[in-house]
């Protein structure tokens, strides 16, 4: 059986928006939205299986009967656990697969993708590479040119101006303007035909009849246009030549006017400003786009999105390949955009601080439905805790009341039957009716006292709604096994006066580094991309031999667990090379007989890869978050004394980041974290609750001052920045953050 890629199927209730509207509403208001993913299509030669119900045959439902509402100019954060379908919803929006999103609505999207390009047939980044390499005689676009080429509307107008100008300047061929204007008209009519066909397929009833009439009208126009386009040059009369030439002149003037309006914003200056803000150097803007590494290509693609002025801008994990300076720059840039532009932003990010700073409202994807909250993530979590406490107390009080009433009903019924007292039996029946009809939500939608004649949901309802206590939406929990006994004390690792360069003639990467880590220590290293953080970790873990000055001393019994920055990419390559490889087989091979299957399953389950996910799902089918868990399992199967984590949050949602931080807080070994994620460093290294968000109660025990256990190993907590090859101790993440904010303000004001 041959398979095609996954297809997205989207349906909704009848939309009030018209797809052919030249000026569609910038608002999105879609009711009854259902989105399903069909993983593969069988070949036509295969006999179809027995037909099931339509809903079942449409594939895996990610969203069912939900309402998608986006107000113009508002910045939204889309939140939900890994695997719930956030990226699929965004892709369906961007590709106009959702009925009700007009095909004239301009949507720009940065999709979450891997840094490396493996499957060129299904990768928008690969498409951009091929396009960039095809211009300029095969030399390819420069980084700056690639970003400037991202504004499709401006480029389309520029293209039309160029072809019209050439045709009107061609004095040797009087028919050139005629053929050009006819070709441009035909292009527009073909777009209208596509939209009319979509419109007709989506509508029914009276509006469907009108849509089919419009389709027939457009089909007639296209047929006439095709005839004019194919008309023999010798048969074109003078009157047609004069009329079409004048039409070409008029269209050129109109397009030039539009283009001049667009040029009010200098696109080259804006592109340059955005690229520099995202970390490019001035000399790097002229480099060919195709020579960039995956992470820098993604920055270039992000810049191409930011210079546009679309109706809806979609950013799926835009901070994945940015250092903290780039994250803070993007944070400030989007804040400015919120004040100066009416573009609607939909953002997915695992960075809690980034979401809190950017988003005005949240769209919560949970249990295949969408709910909305006005406020950022910190406000939502605070409100969620309040609602959980409020409804929990109301339910607990009502359950006590019901238990008391049921006891009195039993007693009253017993006495009534024993004495034959009809009044007591009627009283018992009345109280039972009250339990059946009047127990439930005791407040109205406005928070006031519930009144039956005013607040009952509908005539068909006989009782109030049940009290539902909100349940926590936190990713699968993670458990990290404790470090083994060292047997005798001493520092785990010590770096003394380390100076390193890759070649004798190359510049110094690390200069006079001194670092000592003991059991229980928490060390965080932050810094800009290219500052040498990963090099330092490779020297520390022994992944790279020291070829410079200085001394590295390790405890004789030290075990290091190293999560490298490219761990997920390595697993993806392994999975593609061996498509039968599973998480379970990966760990069994890694352990080389030192773990039995039960222990391997227990470890994977503790990290959130239980049961069949571990044994039946191929590695190449695992999501990014699941691959992080598998990479952690490879690190933890032989419990280490020192955990070294290099950018571990890249593929995780913020629920899982919270679960990871909670698990790390209970680890009794030492932890060295390199990360741009401010939340992770604050919680794991500094032992603080996040300044804006309410966290898992596990963090209560992280602060040594709050611990009553006098036998606990003293825990040293230190945050460093690596700058100009030197480790500089900070008072905390906030000190580094403030220094970067000052730089960003200068960059944005310059």
Automatic annotation (TrEMBL):
Location of the region described as Disordered in the Swiss-Prot/TrEMBL record: 39-58
What's in the keyword line of the UniProt record?
Answer: ATP-binding, Nucleotide-binding, Repeat
| InterPro entries documented for this protein | AAA+_ATPase, ABC_tran_Xtn, ABC_transporter-like_ATP-bd, ABC_transporter-like_CS, ABCF, P-loop_NTPase
Q: Where is the ABC transporter domain?
A: 37-392, 493-721
Q: Where is this chain's protein located in or outside the cell?
A: Membrane
Give this protein's Gene Ontology molecular function annotations.
ATP binding; ATP hydrolysis activity
The way this protein sits in the membrane is described as:
Multi-pass membrane protein
SUPFAM superfamilies listed in its UniProt record: P-loop containing nucleoside triphosphate hydrolases (SSF52540)
Q: What is its main location?
A: membrane
Q: Which GO terms describe its cellular component?
A: membrane
Q: Which CDD domains match?
A: ABCF_EF-3 (cd03221)
Task: Identify this protein by name.
Answer: ABC ATPase
Traced from the root, the source organism's taxonomic lineage reads: Eukaryota, Fungi, Dikarya, Ascomycota, Pezizomycotina
